[in-house]
Design a protein that fits this description.
Blueprint lengths: L10 H8 L1 H5 L2 H13 L9
Length: about 50
């Protein structure tokens, strides 16, 4: 089995990369949020 990408990261450092504010800060991140809304995701990003 392969290792998970964010396995050795702390919660705060994960949120800097994949939290809602971090996503909305970039055009690509906004695209991710838009696609996840379109798909009907319950959780758009990692919850605090």
């Amino acid at each position: 089995m392969t290792k998970r990408t964010l396995s050795n990261k702390t919660r705060s450092s994960v949120l800097k990369v994949s939290g809602f504010r971090a996503r909305m800060a970039t055009p690509e991140g906004k695209k991710i949020i838009r696609n996840r809304r379109k798909k009907g995701r319950k959780n758009l990003t990692i919850q605090r």
